Amino acid sequence: MKYNIIETTDTSFATISDPGLETVIAYFSVDIHDGKTVTKRAVEFLYADMLMSGAGKYNRAEFLDTLNGLGANITVGISDGVCTLSIRARKDVAKKVFALTETILLSPHFDGDELKRVKQTVTNAIIENKENARALAHQQLRNSLYGAEDRRFTFKEDALIEAIKKVTPKDLKTLHKRIMGQFFTCSVAAEQGVAEELKKTLRKIRKNYPLEEALFGIHQQLPPVPRLITKEMPSKQNIEFSIGTPVPITLHHPDFIPLIFGLLVLGGPLFASRLMSTVREKEGLTYGISADGQTFLNEEQGYIRIGTFFSPDNTIKGLSSTFREIKALNEKGISQAELEQFKVIFETKQTLIGDSISRQLSDLHSYHMQKFSLEEIALHKAKIKKLTAEEVNSAMKLYLDPATLIISAVGPIKAIKKDLEAFMKTVA
Fold first, then answer.
1. Which end of the chain is more exposed for a tag (fewer CB within 10 A), N or C?
2. 26-85 tens-digit pLDDT
3. Spatial contact of 118 and 53, defined as CB atoms under 8 Å apart
4. Confidence label for 341 from pLDDT (cuts 50, 70 and 90)
5. Strands 184-190 and 11-17
6. Residues near 237 by Cβ (< 8 Å), separated by ≥ 6?
7. 3-state secondary structure the chain
8. Can you give the pTM of this predicted structure?
9. Spatial separation of the C-alpha atoms in residues 240 and 407, rounded to whole Å
10. In angstroms, what CA-CA distances link 7 with 189, 191, 213?
11. Model confidence over 120-155: pLDDT tens digits?
């Protein structure tokens, strides 16, 4: 596999190329975050579906039939202020799929009748999400860590539904123009000739939408204020928890790798991690528990999140066990044996990425979006090999203080709310 990144004034194009690749996978992303409002978020919710609801000579059904007939897939989504168009296709139909991509980006309809349908579909999804306890617990946590204009903030469902009612085709056209006028970050895995065809397509699109003035991103990380945030949801059997704290460092900070490594030891996806081996396996208090660092970006600061769930009867025991492990890691750090063990786990994970072209491209694109060069990617990953237990323990001491953690809980809380409040007083 040959990796390459070429950046111009308006586009950065990364490739993973190999003569034997019979498929093409591509990601085309644009960061459009410049401060959230409920109206902007409502338009974003509708945009992805509307972009795929007719373009050029095609109505929605004709476009989807043509795409399906090619055995290809094009999806569009906006998450945390980043709009991403994804393409998957066979090599032999790639040019036709690229032509369809060009059509939806240059000639979208944003038809009023389609907008009515999409509004109803999106509204139904938002209403359904009101019962997603795990997602709501995470949203409550993020809203306590970041201000209302930050890309991580989530508005209340009823406010979004009201804002969606007022969205017009003109609003969608305005958003589309804003997206197309920003810097393009594209990553593709394909045979070199196919990758060049995609590059030509992007240049044609860029000619129709020259680069405009860059948006001014707003980042609003808040200082940690430890507290308990609850939402009663009596229809659920378990209580979902998102526990976390803001961390005032970016992806490039020298503490980032030690922090992420320490969180892997605490709550990585394998049973070797402390939370999985104790809270789940040894004590049987939950089926799943994890810890990681999220949304650390090139110029924006991320946060620690521990996610789990407990039955009401096991909640205080579960939280006590979870915080016991957090406190132990904060005060005593990791052992040399854990350092070596989890370095092997990290290397195994990297090997697994190399076994899949899809994983390779996803990994490359995540770095590419944060403006890493190929050399910087290699250096970033190589830091794990040189990592010492002292570096990890220093990061755990500095950033994983149990007294700074916020507990967000959603579920059948009423009967144990006083117990939760009492527990919070012991750790805050």
1. N
2. 999 999 999 999 999 999 999 999 999 999 999 999 999 999 999 999 999 999 999 999
3. yes
4. very high
5. parallel
6. 311, 411, 412
7. CEEEEEECCCEEEEEEECCCCCEEEEEEEEECCCCCCHHHHHHHHHHHHHHCCEECCEEHHHHHHHHHHCCCEEEEEEECCEEEEEEEEEHHHHHHHHHHHHHHHHCECCCHHHHHHHHHHHHHHHHHHCCCHHHHHHHHHHHHHECCCCCCCCCCHHHHHHHHHCCCHHHHHHHHHHHHCCCEEEEEEECHHHHHHHHHHHHHHHHHCCCCCCCCCCCCECCCCCCEEEEECCCCCCEEEEEEEECCCCCCCCCHHHHHHHHHHHHCCCCCCHHHHHHHHHCCCCCCEEEEEECCCCCCCCEEEEEEEECHHHHHHHHHHHHHHHHHHHHHCCCHHHHHHHHHHHHHHHHHHHCCHHHHHHHHHHHHHCCCCHHHHHHHHHHHHHCCHHHHHHHHHHHCCHHHCEEEEEECCHHHHHHHHHHHHHHC
8. 0.94
9. 10
10. 17, 20, 18
11. 999 999 999 999 999 999 999 999 999 999 999 999
Structure tokens at 377: 């990617």
Tell how strand 54-55 and strand 239-246 pair up: unpaired
To the nearest 10°, report the CA torsion of 381, 385, 387, 388.
170
CA-based diameter of the chain, in Å? 65
Retrieve residue 252's tokens: 């490039």
Reported as a pLDDT band with limits 50, 70 and 90, residue 191 is very high
CA 363, 296, 272, 241 torsion-angle sign: negative
Is residue 162 within 8 A of residue 123, CB to CB? The reply is no
CB 73 within 8 A of CB 67: yes
Tokens 């390459």, located at residue: 4
Per-residue pLDDT tens digits for 319-330: 999 999 999 999
Question: What value does the mean pLDDT take over residues 313-321?
Answer: 98
Banded model confidence at residue 428, pLDDT cuts 50, 70, 90: confident
Strand partners, 189: 16, 25
What the block records as the tokens of 153 is 């903030």
Q: What confidence score (pLDDT) does residue 217 get?
A: 85
pLDDT in tens, 231-253: 999 999 999 999 999 999 999 99
